[in-house]
């Protein structure tokens, strides 16, 4: 069986050109730098190949169209000799292999002429490009030289302007120290004309005692051992005086070569005004601006040295003074008047202590300190404080207002010489706080034992927030029992701080500590919420008694008290009539506190007056306010137990006549409870009925008690 014969495969002319153009593009991109993508280069060379083939087919053959193709190659980028070699090699072989240039014998000469014309066009265009680049580079170099010269002239002019107008003295010296240029400022400093200074030796202007030191520094600068020289120097004036100056010398290079030393440039600052300014700044840093007295920093330093040199027998005495009612002066007459009053106080203190070896300082705000180095004639503390207050009590007229002042004083007498200034100042501040406790115009002598106790109390107060966060503070509950049958009618919530590193702190001490720092508001709300939540939970087990919570003065004066109580009752679900909040009778003088008590009573919350005494104002308050209970003061209960009960028998009927029931706190014996029951009291609490205990212990005691 015969098969048809298959002829040779032929490639279309367009496809042959495309393959040749891609080969040309591939080899050219490897030999030249062309800023085109491969696809763009393929397209560009394909178009140039089409133009070349058209020129080779044209009759008659012309060189110029082919030369333009060579010129176009130069414009593609940095093609160079390697690119031309690749182009000639690819086209010389590839064109003769194209079907359209067959037979080879017929087109060989024309292809050879075309490749030659392309090379000629390429070389001519490449030569022009090189010439253009050289011309552009030459122009750039000429411009750079011109710009450098202009910048140099501008820099020199600017330097001249700076040197001429500078308030600092400027001297330019050669490497031998000979002055070649100076400005008017240095001439004025030295009292010499500029033309006299030029040509002189820099070292001749320096005081003889300092010349050697400056000469060594200049040699090190010229040798490259230092970048610049800074010295405090003394220059000689024309009249023989000495000018104290600050000298800074730098080395400018560029003499015989770029890195070779050229000349010295010295800048001179007149140190006279600078020293005065430094002295004034130092004085201001150590003195109060308003009064001119030493400030705390200066006083502390002085105190340290005074303690070391103090007479071993008489020692020193430190007075820490606080101006009474200074805030009222500033509030009513303005801060400016207050500052003028402080200046007056400083002057009066200076006058009183003029005959003593004493330093008076303003510490902070309206606080002053006086340190007296005692002698045989130094008055005692009481006499000194009395003299100060007597002098300050004389009115001074400021802005038409006659003002007088008094001071509260904390005193430290003869502190040990090895005491630190900080410790002594802290002791005086502690004594001042005790002097100001509820009174003004008094003085208090620091007692080391009392000071230790105060610091221990302060330490507890500042540690209490952390104790609350760590769960060391808990709520305990003391039963409130009926005096008729001993049944539990309620519980009184009490705080207890179970310290891991010390003895427990009871309720009264906890609230006292919290009052000192302001923590009592947050702590009181936490205590109220904890107790209300506990009683609400007990109510689910059948407990029907009331919760008694005593509030402090700070809590009653809190503008948010009513909102806090309402929020706690809402969160815990405890009915308002099951809560009884107690107000100390000492708070009745606070209008805001009384308003808060009235609002809480209107909301259904029970109210009581705690620490109730026998005063007529206490009884009047029971009649005027919506008070449900009166909690008799423990001191009255103690007096009844001691047998002093005649005047107490009529107390309960008076309270009941005013519309309140009586609760007795601090009962210890059945006989005592019976006496108060006969007097008309309805309930009591204390050791007889159980101390404040943990919630689960108190819950187990709900129910009647037997005497």
Automatic annotation (TrEMBL):
InterPro entries: Biofilm_reg_signaling, EAL_dom, EAL_sf, GGDEF_dom, Nucleotide_cyclase, PAS, PAS-like_dom_sf, PAS_fold
Pfam families xref list: EAL (PF00563), GGDEF (PF00990), PAS (PF00989)
SMART domains referenced in this protein's UniProt entry, alphabetically: EAL (SM00052), GGDEF (SM00267), PAS (SM00091)
Domain GGDEF, chain residue ranges per copy: 314-448
Protein name: GGDEF domain-containing protein
Span of domain PAS: 155-225
Organism per entry: Saccharothrix yanglingensis
Lineage of the organism: Bacteria, Bacillati, Actinomycetota, Actinomycetes, Pseudonocardiales
Annotated EAL domain residues: 457-706
């Amino acid at each position: 069986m015969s098969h048809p014969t298959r002829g040779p495969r032929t490639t279309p002319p367009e496809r042959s050109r495309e393959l040749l153009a891609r080969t040309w593009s591939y080899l050219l991109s490897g030999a030249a730098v062309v800023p085109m993508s491969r696809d763009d280069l393929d397209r560009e060379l394909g178009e140039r190949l089409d133009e070349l083939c058209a020129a080779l087919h044209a009759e008659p053959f012309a060189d110029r169209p082919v030369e333009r193709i060579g010129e176009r190659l130069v414009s593609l980028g940095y093609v160079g000799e390697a690119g031309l070699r690749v182009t000639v090699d690819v086209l010389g072989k590839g064109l003769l292999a194209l079907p359209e240039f067959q037979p080879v014998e017929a087109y060989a000469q024309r292809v050879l002429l075309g490749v030659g014309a392309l090379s000629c066009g390429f070389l001519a265009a490449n030569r022009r490009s090189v010439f253009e680049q050289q011309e552009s580079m030459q122009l750039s170099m000429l411009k750079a030289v011109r710009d450098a010269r202009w910048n140099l002239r501008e820099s020199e002019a600017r330097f001249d302007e700076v040197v001429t107008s500078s308030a600092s003295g400027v001297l330019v010296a050669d490497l031998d120290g000979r002055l070649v240029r100076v400005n008017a400022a240095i001439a004025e400093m030295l009292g010499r004309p500029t033309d006299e200074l030029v040509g002189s030796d820099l070292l001749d202007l320096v005081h003889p005692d300092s010349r050697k030191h400056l000469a060594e520094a200049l040699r090190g600068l010229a040798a490259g051992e230092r970048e610049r020289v800074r010295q405090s120097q003394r220059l000689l004036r024309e009249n023989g005086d000495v000018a104290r100056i600050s000298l800074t010398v730098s080395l400018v290079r560029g003499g015989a070569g770029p890195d070779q030393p050229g000349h010295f440039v010295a800048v001179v600052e007149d140190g006279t005004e600078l020293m005065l300014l430094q002295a004034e700044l130092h004085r201001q840093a150590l003195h109060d601006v308003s009064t001119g007295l030493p400030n705390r920093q200066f006083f502390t330093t002085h105190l340290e040295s005074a303690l070391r040199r103090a007479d071993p027998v008489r020692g020193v005495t430190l007075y820490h003074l606080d101006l009474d009612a200074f805030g009222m002066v500033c509030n009513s007459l303005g801060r400016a008047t207050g500052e003028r009053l402080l200046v007056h106080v400083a002057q009066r203190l200076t006058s009183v202590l003029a005959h003593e070896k004493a330093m008076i300082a303003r510490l902070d705000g309206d606080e002053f300190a006086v340190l007296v180095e005692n002698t045989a004639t130094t008055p005692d503390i009481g006499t000194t404080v009395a003299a100060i207050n007597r002098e300050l009590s004389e009115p001074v007229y400021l802005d038409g207002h006659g003002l007088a002042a008094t001071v509260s004083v904390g005193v430290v007498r003869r502190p040990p010489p090895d005491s630190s200034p900080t410790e002594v100042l802290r002791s005086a501040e502690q004594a001042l706080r005790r002097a100001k406790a509820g009174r003004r115009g008094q003085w208090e002598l620091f007692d080391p034992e009392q000071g230790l106790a105060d610091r221990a109390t302060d330490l507890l107060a500042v540690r209490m927030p952390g104790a609350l966060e760590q769960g060391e503070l808990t709520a305990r509950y003391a039963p409130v029992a009926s005096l008729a049958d001993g049944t539990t009618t309620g519980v009184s919530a009490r705080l207890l701080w179970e310290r891991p590193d010390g003895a427990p702190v009871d309720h009264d001490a906890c609230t006292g500590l919290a009052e000192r720092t302001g923590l009592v508001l947050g702590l009181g709300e936490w205590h109220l919420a904890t107790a209300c939540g506990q009683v609400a939970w007990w109510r689910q087990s059948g407990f029907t008694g009331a919760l008694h919570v005593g509030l402090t003065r700070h809590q009653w004066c809190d503008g948010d008290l009513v909102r806090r109580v309402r929020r706690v009752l809402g969160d815990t679900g405890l009915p308002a009539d099951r809560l009884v909040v107690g107000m100390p009778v000492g708070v009745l003088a606070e209008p805001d506190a009384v308003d808060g008590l009235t609002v809480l009573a209107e909301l259904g919350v029970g109210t009581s007056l705690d620490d109730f005494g026998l005063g007529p104002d206490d009884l009047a308050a029971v009649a005027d306010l919506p008070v449900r209970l009166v909690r008799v003061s423990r001191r009255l209960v103690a007096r009844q137990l001691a047998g002093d009960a005649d005047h107490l028998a009529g107390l309960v009927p008076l309270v009941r006549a005013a519309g309140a029931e009586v609760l007795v706190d601090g009962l210890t014996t059945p006989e005592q409870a019976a006496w108060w029951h006969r007097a008309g009291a309805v309930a009591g609490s204390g050791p007889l009925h159980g101390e404040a205990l943990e919630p689960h212990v108190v819950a187990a005691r709900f129910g009647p008690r037997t005497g």
